[in-house]
Amino acid sequence: MIARSGDWRTEAAELRRMKPRHILFLCVANSARSQMAEGIARSLAPPGMKVSSAGSSPSSVRPQAIQVLDEIGVDISGHRSKGLDSIDAGSVDAVITLCAEEVCPVFPGNTVRVHWGLPDPAGVTGTEETRLDAFRTVRDELRRRLKALFGQGEDTA
């Protein structure tokens, strides 16, 4: 079971040791954070690991999420927002929730749950560059954490 230390590095190391077969990234709209996490994780995950994302109130994938992942060579242009009902709960070994300022969805089933609260870049206002910078900040933090999770970063234990 995951230690509830609140330290994402410890949680990433525990998840890595678990060797989950299916990781689900979960937030509300499945439009930005969870979509970016899914795309980055798929690019880093070992062969055979299933990576998916969903939201409690799916909307549509934000064009800014597509753009900032394209900047690092990850293509999520074919992704679509999905609801929890599209996920086979029995196949999920680990759920990583990404909500910060909103109430995170609850995932049914007996699975390991980790919370990596990150601000929603879709809520940032201002110029297009300001908004893109918010998406880039979340992207870079997700990439740092996911590299640690998959044993590919400086933050690995």
Structural overview:
This protein has helices at residues 8-18, 33-44, 63-70, 128-149, and strands at 22-27, 50-55, 94-97, 112-115. By secondary structure, it is an alpha/beta fold. The chain has a four-stranded parallel sheet with strand order 2-1-3-4, with helices on one face. Helix 2 links the parallel strand 1 (22-27) and strand 2. Helix 2 packs across helix 4 and helix 3 (63-70) crosses helix 4 (128-149). The model has no long low-confidence stretch (mean pLDDT 91).
Task: Describe this structure in a few short sentences.
The chain is α/β, with parallel strands linked by helices and 157 residues long. It has four helices and four strands, in the order H-E-H-E-H-E-E-H. Helix 1 (8-18) crosses helix 4 (128-149).
Shape: globular
Order of helices and strands: HEHEHEEH
Total helices: the number is 4
Task: Give the strand tally.
Answer: 4
Give the quaternary arrangement of the chains: single chain
Mean pLDDT metric: 91
Rg, rounded, reads 14 Å
Provide the β-strand percentage band.
5-15%
Which regions contain 5 or more consecutive residues with pLDDT less than 50? none
Measured distance between first and last alpha carbons: 17 Å
Structural class: alpha/beta
Helix content: 25-40%
The largest sheet is: 4 strands, parallel
Order of strands, widest sheet: 2-1-3-4
Question: What are its keywords?
Answer:
4-stranded parallel beta sheet; globular; 34% helix; 157 residues; alpha/beta
SSE diagram, text form:
Elements: H1 8-18, E1 22-27, H2 33-44, E2 50-55, H3 63-70, E3 94-97, E4 112-115, H4 128-149
Parallel strand pairs: 1-2, 1-3, 3-4
